[in-house]
Amino acid sequence: MRYEIKRRSGQTSVYYQFQFEKLASGSTFAGVIINHINYLISYNMLSKRSLVGVRSNFHTLAVLFFMLIGMQAFAADPAVESGDEAVAAGKALFNTNCKTCHKLDQKLVGPALRGSTDRSGIESVKSFIKNSAVVIASGNAYYNKLFKEFNGTPMPAHEFLSDDDLNNLLSYIEFGDVVDPSAAVATVGADGAAVATGGGIPNEYLTVILGVLVVVLLLILVVLGLIISVLTKYLTKQDLDADDDEFVNQKTDLKKVFKSDMFVVIVTALVIALVAKTALDGLYSVGLQQGYAPEQPIAYSHALHAGTLQIECQYCHTGVEIGKSANIPSANICMNCHTHVQNIQGKEGVSPEIQKIYDAVDNNQPIEWVRVHNLPDLAYFNHSQHVVVGEVECQTCHGPIQEMEVVGQHSALTMGWCIDCHRQTEITTEGNAYYDKLVQVHSASKDALKVKDIGGLECAKCHY
Fold it and tell me: Which parts pass through the membrane (predicted)?
């Protein structure tokens, strides 16, 4: 778009053409007005024009003001929709396509995304998402600056996204998961309910309390011993009859105690109980690998990927929502990110651990990960059944995986452990049509519907 404004002398003002071109290319209205004011001040100071000339320029500025308002209104980007459905759809797209490299409010591999439509406009953001290389090649100053700021890391093209997909994605970026600082201390579960982060008395406090009690008991014993000693000395100085004197001065015969039948029976029973307990513990530990944390061929950190970078477990373990096994990720999944990410941010060159991925891909060899969680063949466990239908979090079985540098088996994963979980876990039925009929059958009971109530304790559910 090109506008020409005639000055009173009849000459074309190239300056105004330039200002309108800036506005049409995306410059802000405020920036154009400020430039014009500076131009007026500078021009009048240099030419020492009369008040009439200044007034004329003021009129010109007023015309420019109203014309620019019209242009801004005409060329304004449509507002990003803030509806719940759009935000929810956008979140799904974000988790699938963007979460590996971006956060909403913090830098990750790429910049923080919230507010991007304000910084460069909705259509500009859409174009960049679809094909960032084309936008950068066009010379866009804003995106070229970002490209340099993030070490020239290219963003994959997403031309398969429809315009509706992009609108939903932008809705989530602008309005999704806004954290309320006053509620930041609360931990929220998958169903939106607050999750307790701990309960009862911490172990450290219990240790201190028990220690204090032991000291108090020892002091009481010492005091009682002193009292007995003082009373004994006092009574020995008194005129006592033969029976009282024998009682006061009686001695404990330890040899007689040790040879007594009662002592032998008690000691024998304690030894048998201790041996039996040790044998049972040994039998129960057969096949139990709790705490097992083997060294892996590549030093992969879940604390970095699942914790700091907040990559969804399902991104690497692709089978967790669709099948029995969660799947150990193949090298091509690693390469989705590490084609571009070659080291920790701020370090030069290729990381030795990431180089191992490149070597495996170049030589067409699998990465031989060491399996950590290994249930016996006689037990059936289905990941998708628990994660999709049961809405069980990964941490329920695997522990705080997002904090582990080296993955280890957190839970016992024994039959008793599973049964306890089935006895205690309440079923999330709200919004889950899978359980509608079971809820109707259970409606007469005052207790919450738990896994044990729908066959969670039946042998054939896991052993068949």
Answer: 58-75, 205-231, 262-280
> Where are the extended beta strands (E) located within 372-423?
none
Who contacts 101 (Cβ-Cβ below 8 Å, separation ≥6)?
Answer: 108, 109, 110, 155, 337
Residue 320, classified by CB atoms within 10 Å of its CB into exposed (0-12), middle (13-18) or buried (19+), is buried
Report the C-alpha gap between 319 and 325 in whole angstroms. 6
Token look-up 């522990």 returns 399
Question: For tokens 């090298």, what's the residue?
Answer: 331
The answer to whether residues 157 and 132 touch, using CB atoms and an 8 Å cutoff, is yes
**CA torsion 276→279→281→282, rounded to 10°?**
180
Q: Which two tokens stand for residue 24?
A: 């049409």
Provide the total of helices (H) and of strands (E) in the chain, helices listed first: 22, 0
Residues in the chain: 464
Task: Retrieve residue 247's tokens.
Answer: 């009682």
Please tell me the distance from the alpha carbon of residue 326 to that of residue 457, in angstroms, as a whole number.
24
Q: How far apart are the first and last CA of the chain?
A: 74
In the numeric block, the tokens 């974000």 are attached to 94
Nearest to 378 by CA among 412, 409, 410, 414: 414
188 bridge partner residues: 194
Residue with tokens 């998402």: 129
pLDDT digits (tens, 9 = 90+) for 295-326: 999 999 999 999 999 999 999 999 999 999 99
Taking the C-alpha atoms of residue 321 and residue 96, their distance in angstroms, rounded to an integer, is: 14
Among 7-16, 245-254, 342-351, 449-458, where is mean pLDDT lowest?
7-16
Residues 6+ positions from 104 with CB-CB distance below 8 Å: 112, 113, 114, 173, 176, 177
Q: Which backbone phi and psi does 188 adopt, to 5 degrees?
A: -115, 135
Which tokens in the block code for residue 108?
């990750």
pTM: 0.46
Amino acid (1-letter code) at residue 330 = S
Q: Are 147 and 190 in contact (CB under 8 A)?
A: no
* CATH numbers and ranges of domains, the chain: 14-75 (no CATH), 84-182 (1.10.760.10), 203-272 (no CATH), 302-462 (no CATH)
Q: Are 383 and 377 in contact (CB under 8 A)?
A: no
